[in-house]
Amino acid sequence: MRYTDLVMIKKLIIIALVSIGCSSGPQHPTERAERRFLDKYAVAAMESFQLRYLGLNVATSDKITDFGARFMTHQLSDVDQARSLVVKSAQNFIESVNSDTNLAKFLANDSFKLENLDYYVSFWDDKTDRPPKPYVALATVKNGMITYHFKCNDSEFLDDSANIQESFEEALTRLK
């Protein structure tokens, strides 16, 4: 089997997994509101940050406490570049959640805050492989912390021993 065939198969598997995750049964009213919001936000994320929406991050309940999404980009980014992208896009996500009147009625609190955000950005090269170090493979925002994950040297898996973590506030300070 040729390398190009393997790349095509990998892309088809990713598309199939995303499709399966997006086509579950009857939707709860909160889930409908979340999906409507994410459908709109996906366009803005692509236009503003070149982030492709992959899926909803948090299980739905009657009230939204934690909420977020998974995105991917083909922008190769070191930690400084990833920090800039993740901070700006996460802030935009939070602002967008808070300004969406349909979603607001499902928020557990008066407003959606950083502590409620569950946000992922996967970084892929043009062949849909994780980029090698020094590039970030995945950045996550959870509980007010940003974690930058890197690919193992000898596989496509993430190297947990190489993670870099900082608070969102530290990241904001570094961007100034």
Q: How does the SSE layout of this entry go?
A:
Elements: H1 3-22, H2 29-49, E1 52-56, E2 69-73, H3 79-99, H4 101-104, E3 118-123, E4 138-142, E5 145-149, E6 164-167, H5 168-175
Parallel strand pairs: 2-3
Antiparallel strand pairs: 1-2, 3-4, 4-5, 5-6
Helix pairs in contact: 2-3, 3-5
Outline:
By secondary structure, the protein is an alpha+beta fold. It has one domain. It has a six-stranded mixed β-sheet with strand order 1-2-3-4-5-6.
Architecture overview:
Helix content is 42%, strand content 17%. It is of the alpha+beta class. A six-stranded mixed beta sheet has the order 1-2-3-4-5-6. A hairpin with a 2-residue loop joins strand 4 and strand 5. The model has no long low-confidence stretch (mean pLDDT 86).
Question: Which segments are poorly predicted (pLDDT under 50) over 5 or more consecutive residues?
Answer: none
Counted beta strands: 6
Write the element-wise H/E pattern from the N-terminal end onward. Answer: HHEEHHEEEEH
Largest sheet: 6 strands, mixed
Question: Which features would summarize this protein structure in a list?
Answer:
single chain; 176 residues; alpha+beta; globular
